[in-house]
Amino acid sequence: MTKHMIEAGKPASKLKSEALAVLLERGLVHQCTDIEALDNTLSQGPITAYAGFDATAASLHVGHLMPLMTMRWLQKLGHRPIIVLGGGTSQVGDPSFRKDARPMLEERQIAANIASIRRSVERLVDMEGADGALLVDNAKWLNEFRFLEFLRDYGSQFTVNRMMTFDSVKSRLEAQMPLTVLEFCYMMLQAVDFLELSKRHECRLQVGGSDQWGNIVNGVELGRRDGRKLHGLTVPLLTTASGSKMGKTAAGAVWLHPEHLSPFGFWQFWRNTADADVGKFLRLFTELPIKEVERLSELQGAELNEAKKILATQVTTIVHGPEEALGALRQGDALFAGEGDILEPTHKLPLSRLAEGLGLLELVVALGFAGSNGEARRLVEGGAVRLNNHIVDDARRRIGTGDLGANERLSLSVGKRRKALVEFD
Question: Is 75 annotated as a binding residue?
Answer without folding.
Answer: no
